[in-house]
Design a protein that fits this description.
Distance between the termini: 141 Å
Shape: rod-shaped
Radius of gyration: 54 Å
Number of strands: 8
Structural class: alpha+beta
């Protein structure tokens, strides 16, 4: 819409602004509007200004465009209320609660079920491990040594029998004698064993044959494995029998 006052011509939009609308006014030359209580200057730049009002009545603009000072440029403002509106507030209604989401309940249920299953699995594994640990007493070192020697002696096609017999002998001695740890070399074990005949000679043969099979490019020489394996059992000390004297 175009309105004019003497030498001032301007256009504004929307054509029928209502209360609260942003009203854009364009002049032919740069404009500076005067501030007033009945309207708000939202912005103004160059020949364009944007205003709005919250009063349902015509507003008169004043300002300066170019070299012309103007006053009384009227912009009609229509009310957004109906003609017969009594200006009474609408009755208050209680707030409507949003529908309750089931996601938190489902998440809590899933978490609880997961925790219960995890706890059950831990208890099951704990009992299973406990049964394995305590179901049978540990096998004594001498018995383990006897079983290993018997197994190696019975299988003449088992690979590296000399090395296996030597390792079993080292493990047995380490379990029976604190000073014969499995980390010792063959020379150290033999020097600490302190028996140059009988069991000591058998131990020397077993450890040397095992070392040759492990480290020699030619392997262990051809020897009677069964005979030496039988003599390996002499490493097990004889049990001490204590005879208690009858009381007089």
């Amino acid at each position: 819409m175009i309105f004019a006052l003497l030498l001032v011509t301007a256009t504004f939009r929307p054509a029928a602004p209502a209360v609260g609308d942003l009203i854009t006014i364009e002049f032919q030359k740069p404009v500076v509007l005067e501030r007033a209580e009945h309207y708000e200057i939202v912005s103004q730049k160059g020949n364009r200004a944007v205003i709005r009002t919250f009063r349902p009545e015509p507003i008169g603009l004043a300002g300066k465009t170019g070299d012309v000072t103007f006053k009384g440029l009227i912009i009609p403002i229509r009310s957004v209320l109906a003609a017969d509106d009594r200006l009474e507030p609408a009755p208050l209604k209680p707030p409507v609660a949003p529908p309750r989401s089931q996601r938190p309940i489902a998440a809590i249920a899933i978490a609880a079920l997961t925790a219960a299953l995890t706890w059950a699995a831990v208890m099951f594994l704990r009992r299973r491990i406990a049964r394995k640990l305590y179901a049978a007493p540990p096998v004594p070192a001498a018995e383990r040594f006897r079983l290993t020697v018997a197994t190696l002696r019975s299988d003449d096609r088992a690979p590296h029998r000399w090395a296996a017999l030597a390792d079993a002998s080292r493990a047995f001695l380490a379990a029976e004698y604190p000073n014969l740890g499995s980390e010792l070399t063959t020379t150290e074990i033999l020097s600490r064993f302190g028996d140059a005949t009988g069991a000591g000679r058998t131990l020397m043969e077993i450890l040397q044959m095992g070392d040759l099979e492990k480290f020699s490019p030619w392997g262990a020489p051809d020897r009677d494995f069964s005979s030496i394996a039988d003599r390996a059992l002499t490493l097990i000390p004889e049990p001490v029998v204590v005879i208690e004297e009858a009381a007089a």
